[in-house]
Amino acid sequence: MSNDSDFKLYGFWRTSSTYRVRVALRLKGLTAAEQIVDLEKGEQLSNSFLAINPLGAVPALVLKGQAPLTQSLAILEFLDEKVPEPPLLPTDLLGRARVRSIASMLACDVHPLVTPRMRKYLTSTGGFDPSLWRAWQIHWFTEGLSAVETRLTSDPETGRFCHGDDPTLADVCLASIVEIMHAFDIKTEATPTIDRIMDNCRTVDAFVLADPFRQSGAPVKSDSAE
Amino acid sequence: MSNDSDFKLYGFWRTSSTYRVRVALRLKGLTAAEQIVDLEKGEQLSNSFLAINPLGAVPALVLKGQAPLTQSLAILEFLDEKVPEPPLLPTDLLGRARVRSIASMLACDVHPLVTPRMRKYLTSTGGFDPSLWRAWQIHWFTEGLSAVETRLTSDPETGRFCHGDDPTLADVCLASIVEIMHAFDIKTEATPTIDRIMDNCRTVDAFVLADPFRQSGAPVKSDSAE
């Protein structure tokens, strides 16, 4: 499974959920050939992509001869079960529940609200002008990260990373939100614990190499988007 | 752990995520004392509830002497690991990924868009009038269930339930969306495969007894809400 040709990852440079899969693959020592599905151009709804994934959703991780794996949290759990080392979940049940809960706070409670389909609906049917859309993005990023910050700061299980001293699914999801927030040039209120954990993530190759701005199809990073 | 006093479930009659936990507890033969947190009255932000869960979110499943478990998907995985029988995930890795993916399509891609916090933002800051809010609800329920219907109809793994012939996490999440959609009196386009699976769910006590309208605090069900 360490051979490139075993996996193909359909994704988009800026997509938070594609980022998660990219990080998890590298944490597990796996590689995948990445195929761009340009969400700006609506390629996720093209006939050629719908033949791969009839749901028209990225990321889709394709293993030769298998139906595509979809939904980032399901893919992360799959990779963790397929390649157990290094583990992305702790061994104790309460620890596992805590990591999955933090992951959900980010991947379920924040990310679905700031997706292209959301922007499309709100700026057309919803009548949002650009400033209302931006206020919406800032609101949900801020609310979500504040809740995670409160939790990480108060829980004794928080270590160098969200849970102890090694990266878990929670860090993968946290970084996936923080990095796209930066891609949108959005800043929230101070989140010192998250910032500290993100500094630690940025010492790990798997996170560094998954940076949206390093991906094929990404624009050149401007100073204002740092 | 089968003793009532070992668990306390903080939830609200109509909340999709509370429903999921309610069903899973019963599928596992567990019971929990349920404590109403009235989201209509904002009780999730009351000092007394914030002392239980500083994040102000339901459901929260409390085990004596432990920090509350939060986020329904994390709680479902916890219950499945704590009490392995009957299993809520298949044993094969691809099957587990499929079940988790369907669960995410519902719990992450639909539910977060139709929550009270969403209504609050859209009808205040977002300027949505009641008809725009209702169109929003119908749109996301319809889009989400159509995608799940397409998948269930085309996948050979679909059986009496979403994956094979026994309920899994996918059915728990599917029913949680269908039942609150009914509570909101919303109908989507035809979804014959989902309807057939829901008919099978409604033969299982754990699903029947979790019906939002059977919960403490629920209004009397009117004919129009059937």
What helical percentage do the residues of chain A reach?
40-55%
Distance between the termini of chain A: 35 Å
Average of per-residue pLDDT values of chain A = 92
At CATH level 2, the architecture of the largest domain in chain A is: Up-down Bundle
The helix/strand class of chain A is alpha+beta
Q: And the CATH topology of the largest domain in chain A? A: Glutathione S-transferase Yfyf (Class Pi), Chain A, domain 2
Please state the CA-atom Rg of chain A, rounded to the nearest Å: 17 Å
Description:
The structure is a homodimer of 226-residue chains. Helix content of chain A is 47%, strand content 7%. Chain A is α+β, with helices and mostly antiparallel strands and 226 residues long. In chain A, strands 2-1-3-4 form a 4-stranded mixed β-sheet, covered by helices on one side. In chain A, α1 links the parallel β1 and β2 (33-36). The first copy, chain A, is globular, with a radius of gyration of 17 Å. Chain A starts with 6 loop residues before the first strand and ends in an 18-residue tail after the last helix. The mean pLDDT of chain A is 92. The interface between A and B is large, with 48 and 48 residues.
